Amino acid sequence: MADVTQAGDAATVPKADPILRLCDVEKQFGGIRAVAACSFEIGRGTITGLIGPNGAGKSTLFNIISGFIAPTSGRILLDEDEITGLAPHVLFARGLVRTFQIPQEFQQLTVLDNLMLVPAGRSGESIVSSWFRWARVCDEETGIRDRAEEVLEFLQLTRLRDEFAGNLSGGQKKLLELGRTMMTDARLVLLDEPGAGVNPTLMKRLVADIRRLNRERGYTFCIIEHDMDLIAALCDPVIVMAEGAVLTAGSMAEIRRDPRVIEAYFGGSGQARGTRA
Amino acid sequence: MDLFELFTFVVFFLSLVGIYGVLALGLNVQWGLTGLFNIGIAGFFAIGAYTSAILTTADSPGYVGGFGLPMAVGLLVGILLSGTIALLIGLITLNLREDYLAIATIGIAEIIRLVLKNEEWLTNGVRGIAGIPRPFAGWFDDPTGVTNLLVVALALVVVYAALERGRQSPWGRVMRAIREREIAVMAAGKNTVRFRLESFVLGSAIMGLAGGLYAHFFGFVSPEAFDPMYTTFLIWVMLIAGGSGNNRGALLGALVIWTIWAGTEYLTNAFAPPEYLTRAATVRMFLVGLLLEIILLTRPQGLLPESQFVTRREERRRRRSDISDGK
Amino acid sequence: MVLEIIQLTVYGIVLGSIISLGAIGLSLLYGILRFAHFAHGDVMTVGAYLALAGVTGLGLPIWAASALAVGGGVGLAVLIDQTLYRRLRRTAPVILLIASVGIALILRSLVQFVWGPDTQVYTQELQMPVRLLGIRLKPTQLQIVAGAVILVVILHLFLTRTRTGKAMRAMADNPELARIVGIDTELVVVWTWVIGAALAVAAGIFLGMDTRLQPTMGWHILLPVFAAAILGGIGKPYGAIVGGMVVGIASELSTMVFPPVYKPAVAFALMVVMLLVRPTGLFGAPR
Ligand SMILES: Nc1ncnc2c1ncn2[C@@H]1O[C@H](COP(=O)(O)OP(=O)(O)O)[C@@H](O)[C@H]1O
Ligand SMILES: [Mg+2]
Known about the structure:
By secondary structure, chain A is an alpha/beta fold. Chain A is built from 11 helices and 10 strands. In chain A, 44% of the residues are buried. Chain B is mostly helical. Helix content of chain B is 72%, strand content 1%. Chain B has 13 helices and 2 strands; from the N terminus they run αααααβααααβαααα. In chain B, 54% of the residues are buried. By secondary structure, chain C is mostly helical. Chain C has one domain: ABC transporter involved in vitamin B12 uptake, BtuC. The longest helix of chain C has 32 residues, at 2-33. Chain C is globular. Classes of the chains: A alpha/beta, B mainly alpha, C mainly alpha. Chains in contact: A-B, B-C. The B-C interface holds B 35, 37, 39, 92-93, 96-100, 102-104, 106-108, 110-111, 114, 117-118, 228-229, 233, 236, 240, 278-279, 282-283, 285-286, 288-290, 292-293, 296-297, 300 and C 30, 35-36, 38, 84, 87-88, 91, 93-95, 97-99, 101-103, 105-106, 108-110, 112-113, 116-117, 219-220, 222-223, 226-227, 230, 259, 261-262, 264-265, 267-268, 271-272, 275-276, 279. The complex binds adenosine-5'-diphosphate (ADP) and magnesium ion. The site of adenosine-5'-diphosphate has 11 residues of chain A, from β2 and α2.
């Protein structure tokens, strides 16, 4: 089904098979235009980078794609189906999963519970079946626990299993955020600055983990990141945003040479982080 | 004779503690578990009580009645009706700011109070409804009301067990997570509005059950008994004092606060001069309010704080089955 | 028929004046402290009874007693805020909600303790209604509307001409922004209590003049006051005035169809419709 591409599209679109497509997405907050006429595609199976100076509208765009805020105008297509304005839990069920720039862990739940919360479509989430089908609920929980323990193993967080998530370091919380996306059969994962606050050792592991998930499980990633080393190591293509709009897109090498990108980073607010780009 | 009186008193006292315990458990689902603010408890309590009263009493001139249905039917319909009203309120307010729910619950309780007082054809107005059958009345003689206590105790045990099960299930985990960070629960693919709606409806239905138990316990209901002062506030103080989020805390709070409330009433009735009796009641109310503020300032977690772990139960079961599998 | 509608509308304006005065304070407090102050109705009650003490106890004329009551009510509100609410401000806003419910209870039982549960009046004198073009109107009702207009004008001058007033409006609209801009938030909070309590006391006295005094009077008018604040949009004092008028007039007009005891239900229905259609209020941005 996925490879039935329409002839018209094939002519204009270089990438054969986009999983996500944005058409003229726009978002106004009062007078502020956070996102302006944004159009781009994310190819299936890619690890796409999304970079740009602070305030470029990247996080807002993630919020729009994942259904947390409604765009002022424009359309979003997931697998050629319109998903604009759908609620986050509906999009989650379609395999669209996200993390937050500021980790949103459940501080008063254990690391294990943080993961076990995620999987959907089980009977235990109805209180009625916890009354009348307790054995089945427990069986399902056991399965989910096994999966959560696998994820912890994968992220090398097993020894923190019973720690309250509030006690983790910033980098560990970032890993936990990533772990939550692994608790479900995601297809498109949006990571908002997964590397922020992560120390170099953890960072190496994060890069390896993302690549492995991409290869072994076929996740498509879209990653917002300020650390250009991480972007260079993982992402192709890279999309550059500035002032709410897409500035350019291409491979990392092309981006580095693009004078508009340098202008965007140094011209306006002069972001120090951009020097590595 | 003295012993008999004492026994009757203890039965009476425990029955009321049990009924308030059920109310406190209902509020604990909403507030303790999910963080939903309901200050219309008296309204749901009244719906349960009046529904069961109207459905189970014999015919009487002046207002609707004469259905003479069994008590179980009365209780069930009362539960369903309060749950349905909660569903309607929840659908309107639960996707808005949290305080709007609180305001809406005041509104609905106020309207219910007005209906009870003014719709004589339905509720017999301020005169109230009398002759509500006691549980198993006519089966045998029960001068102390101990059968009633047993019925209340049974209801309490069932509600407690059901809520504990729910709290320790994945459902309970989602509830706690919603209270902490709703946005992350949404990102985990949960329809948080649905979860909150479930909790609100469940809690209100339990309050309806408490109302039915109350009606059959006293055999008489009138609007005065459902004054927000005497139910809503007392229940709130019970839950906060006992420990919101902890079902055992809710029950302990019901016991402690009701002992204080009824005990001081007994003392003032015994020792205060009659002309000061109504004033004494307001002093007690004042003190309950003060107690609430002191608890909020000094021990907001209550006597029995909420337990931190949610997955223990399932884990215990698994260990047990591991052992029985010979691992 | 037309005359009846006009008559009821006039009554509605009287009731709306009372509700508006309560709703302005509630709306400002809600906007600035981010919590619904459930004791607001009982602050009205306390104010009404303080004025009663001035009238019957000290033999003062009602206006002098009112001034005294405003002073007392404001002092009480600031005291409660500084001793209780301020300590709870760091916790979740709903804890403040519970605390305010407790305060409502405390204030009401105090009133009932001091003045007893029975209804009381400021004056036994019979009010002779005046007739204006076929509309009946009691002198107290004229006084209520005039008093409310004067208070609103003073409020308007305060909000638009003074630094504190401007800061208050900014903060009610967007507290985070106001904090960044460098507004002394604690000072604004205290001023909000002063304004809110003063208007609530006035509303309580007017309510007592219009009907009678009762320890539960404030609690029972709380619902219409909340409805008005929500109709007008939280944090918008001018919206609260319009909301109050809408609720007051609609409540009175409803008596043509429903028994008068259900006036609060009308307020509730208006609020529910508003929450369904446009939760941000009449003047808020659409959802
Ligand atoms: N909820 C909001 N209300 C008002 N303005 C917002 C909101 N969220 C983001 N913005 C504004 O939108 C712009 C883009 O923000 P954001 O998407 O967070 O940028 P980035 O993630 O690229 O750093 C910024 O100017 C920010 O101030
Ligand atoms: Mg960002």
